[in-house]
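Q: Got a minute? One more chain.
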Amino acid sequence: MPKRNRPYVALECQSCHNRNYTTSKNPKNTTDRLELKKFCKHEQKVLAHKETK
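A: Always. Here it is, folded:
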């Protein structure tokens, strides 16, 4: 069985600072921190979410 090289990362809302989402990423191809636009259920808007450690 091959090794899994896609660690899970948490995405934190830049407005309310809640960790709303988790996702996986390939660290060899994406060395920077992820930044995605996702829906924040606390703010009721689509806002930027950044990867946290």
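A: The radius of gyration is 12 Å.
Q: Perfect, thanks.
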